[in-house]
Design a protein that fits this description.
The protein is an alpha/beta fold and 226 residues long. It has 6 helices and 7 strands.
């Protein structure tokens, strides 16, 4: 799926920690393989909805998690969190597209378009506008990731349901994913909340066991150019 010449990876995260929940183990694996991983964090919380001290704390947590995983670069677009639906879609498309155009990823990871959070759906749309195969620089692989407490909380059956058809083996990288999420102390919840270490581990074990490996992350294939 990911050929040796696909060296540059981009992950679009609507909010800090989405990239860890959805692809933290995959990021760790790709870095270990010598690939260059970029994370584009689209939004930033703004007062009064998000207190400035919390916003600054999350920014620091993000950097700590990315340093731990060895991410090549973090791109903060600083658009308003939980308010992307107030922006003209063309503006969002242009902002996300400019960031991805500078990276020129061979493979692109995007939030699932059936997530309950409107920011996730808007970011999916913007990333897919960038990813249109209009020239030879378009991503040759686009995968949608699942985000605990977002991907499964809308109304599957009435809205798009997450039906993964790609699993990436993260057996040697699950602990790195958990340690990266541990950096987000402001976001960690106690079990049985979905954003708990127990649930993250359980999902990785489930996704892995469906393809007979110890841990995995599941994705929906959007496009692959072979």
């Amino acid at each position: 799926m990911l050929s040796e010449d696909m060296r540059t990876i981009a992950v679009v995260a609507p909010h800090p920690d989405d990239e860890i929940l959805g692809c933290g183990g995959t990021i760790s694996r790709f870095v270990a393989e010598g690939r260059s991983v970029h994370v584009v964090i689209v939004t930033r919380g703004r007062p009064p909805k998000f207190p400035e001290d919390l916003v600054n704390r999350v920014r620091a947590e993000t950097q700590a998690a990315h340093d731990l995983l060895g991410i090549h670069a973090t791109h903060h677009l600083d658009l308003p969190a939980a308010e992307l639906d107030t922006l003209p879609q063309a503006e969002l498309n242009a902002t996300v597209g400019k960031a991805l155009g500078a990276i020129r990823p061979d493979a692109l990871f995007v939030p699932f378009n059936g997530d309950i959070h409107a920011d996730h759906r808007a970011c999916f749309d913007a990333a897919m506008v960038y990813a249109r195969p209009r020239d030879g620089d378009c991503p040759r692989l686009v995968l949608a990731y699942e985000t605990l407490s977002e991907t499964n909380w809308w109304a599957p059956g009435l809205t798009p349901g997450f039906l993964p058809n790609v699993t990436i083996d993260i057996s040697g990288h699950l602990e790195a994913k958990l340690e990266a999420f541990r950096c987000f102390a402001s976001q960690v919840k106690d079990f049985p909340d979905e954003r708990s270490f127990e649930t993250i581990r359980a999902l990785a074990k489930l996704r892995g066991s469906t393809v007979f490996c110890e841990a995995g992350e599941a994705f929906a294939l959007v496009r692959q150019i072979i």
